[in-house]
């Protein structure tokens, strides 16, 4: 069995995902191919994984590294699983561009990696690269599963599922921790809880939550309403109060997926709901500042070890290789799984993973207000894919004009001007649009 990791220069994330695999007895005799366009970061990850391989699996895995576009097919050759964790354009220049040009138009963002003007342009940078991956995979590993971790999840995974022949599933961290996060925020125990989650990535809904057959939502909502202090999850609590269900991804994310929170005419909402504007650039700067210390700790530590995490990849691969079923929340093409969302949308639903691959579960009808909120995001996602595939500039405008946050703040003319300025500023990070 061979696993190829695209974007292996993400050393910390590679440690989590590939460390999980090396810590899993059924997967330890694996060939791992690390691929990145940044040779220094690739070498860091290679050294880190060699340390983990020696300590977790007694050197049973074989680890190779491949740098540069010209070696990508060699990295992919014969892979059974391909893990995607790339970031096209990085923090500098592309994330800086997404945030700073939007600010010129009075458009503020928090994370800008999933929806909004930042999520739109991140998708436009990334989809063409992923379609190149697909062409390579179709040539040298056509039966491999692509496990996509890169954001914007729904747009990227949807593009792969609709416009390539590659078996693709999108994986996120938010489903696994959703119920636990909510319960801890209202000081309730987390043991013995059952729940169902479905919707779209970063806006999937905790549809029900119970313990021993008792519905926990009434007590959760009572306690949430009684909280007096400011906390980091106030947007999600308000969404739950108004729309009825808790949403999977964090408050700083969801604040920019809806038109209600970041508003020039209501600046008091930022303080009231504790919304961290420019949060992602702050995190990037902090991560860059910490990297040298992290780098030494990860690459120069002969005793480096790892405990298996809740990331889905190793559990999925183990289930497929051993035919012992495992349940995940996966991002897949809808095709009637959620009956009141578009068939071509990429949805996040329970999936069964076993020797047959990934089998999504039918969900049925979402509560109408939740489906309506999902559709506002799906509109932009589908038009983003259309823009990336058709290379028509008008669809970039359409995607931005239908984005909930952008359309709540900007006029049609300013939205088009913003898009044109971002296209020009990104330069060669984007293909040519007509």
Cα-atom radius of gyration: 21 Å
SS content category: alpha/beta
Oligomer: single chain
The major sheet is characterized as: 6 strands, parallel
Strand content: 15-25%
Strand-and-helix sequence, N→C? EHEHEHEHHEHEHEEEHHEHHHHEEEHHHH
Instruction: Quote the distance from N terminus to C terminus.
Output: 43 Å
Form type: globular
Mean pLDDT equals 97
Extended strand count:
13
Instruction: Enumerate the spans where pLDDT stays under 50 for 5 or more consecutive residues.
Output: none
Summarize the amount of helix as a percent range: 40-55%
Total count of helical runs of at least 4 residues: 17
Q: Strand order within the widest sheet?
A: 3-2-1-4-5-6
Overview of the structural elements:
This protein has helices spanning 11-22, 39-56, 72-76, 90-104, 116-140, 153-163, 174-185, 217-226, 234-243, 251-254, 268-272, 279-299, 312-322, 368-390, 393-401, 404-409, 412-426; strands at 2-6, 31-36, 62-67, 81-84, 145-148, 167-170, 193-200, 203-211, 214-215, 246-247, 326-333, 346-354, 357-360. It contains 17 helices and 13 strands. Helix 14 (368-390) packs antiparallel against helix 15. The N and C termini lie far apart (43 Å). The protein has 434 residues and is an alpha/beta fold. The strands form three sheets. Strands 3-2-1-4-5-6 form a six-stranded parallel beta sheet, sandwiched between helices. Strands 7, 8, 9 and 10 form a four-stranded antiparallel beta sheet that branches.
């Amino acid at each position: 069995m061979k696993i190829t990791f695209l974007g292996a220069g993400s050393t910390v994330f590679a440690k989590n995902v590939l460390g999980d695999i090396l810590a899993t007895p059924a997967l330890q005799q694996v060939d791992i191919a690390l691929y990145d366009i940044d040779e220094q970061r690739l070498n860091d990850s290679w050294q880190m994984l060699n340390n983990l391989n020696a300590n977790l699996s007694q050197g049973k895995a074989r680890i190779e590294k491949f740098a540069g576009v010209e070696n990508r097919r060699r990295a992919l050759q014969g892979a059974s699983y391909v893990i995607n964790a790339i970031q096209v354009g990085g923090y500098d220049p592309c994330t800086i561009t997404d945030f700073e040009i939007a600010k010129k138009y009075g458009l503020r963002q928090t994370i800008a990696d999933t929806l909004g003007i930042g999520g739109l342009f991140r998708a436009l940078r990334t989809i063409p690269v992923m379609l190149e991956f697909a062409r390579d995979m179709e040539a040298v590993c056509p039966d491999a599963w692509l496990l996509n971790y890169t954001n914007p999840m729904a747009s990227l995974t949807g593009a792969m599922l609709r416009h390539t022949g590659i078996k693709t599933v999108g994986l996120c961290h938010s489903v696994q921790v959703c119920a636990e996060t909510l319960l801890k925020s209202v000081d309730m125990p987390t043991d013995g809880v059952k729940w169902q989650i479905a919707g779209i990535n970063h806006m999937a809904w905790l549809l029900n939550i119970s313990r021993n057959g008792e519905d926990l939502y009434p007590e959760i909502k009572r306690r949430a309403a009684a909280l007096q202090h400011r906390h980091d999850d106030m947007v999600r609590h308000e969404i739950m109060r108004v729309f009825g269900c808790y949403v999977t991804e964090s408050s700083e994310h969801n604040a920019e997926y809806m038109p209600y929170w970041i508003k020039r005419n209501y600046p008091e909402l930022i303080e009231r709901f504790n919304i961290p504007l420019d949060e992602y650039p702050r995190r990037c700067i902090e991560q860059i500042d910490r990297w040298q210390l992290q780098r030494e700790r990860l690459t120069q530590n002969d005793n480096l070890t790892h405990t298996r995490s809740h990331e889905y990849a190793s559990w999925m691969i183990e289930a497929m290789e051993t035919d012992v079923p495992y349940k995940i929340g996966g991002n897949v093409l809808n095709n009637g799984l959620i009956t009141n969302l578009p068939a071509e949308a990429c949805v996040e639903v329970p999936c069964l993973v076993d020797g047959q691959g990934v089998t999504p579960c039918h969900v049925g009808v979402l509560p109408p207000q939740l489906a309506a909120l999902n559709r506002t995001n799906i509109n932009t996602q589908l038009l983003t894919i259309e823009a990336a595939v058709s290379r028509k500039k008008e669809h970039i405008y359409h995607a931005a004009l239908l984005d909930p946050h952008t359309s709540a703040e900007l006029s049609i003319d300013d939205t088009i001007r913003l898009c044109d300025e971002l296209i020009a500023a990104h330069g060669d990070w984007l293909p040519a649009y007509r």
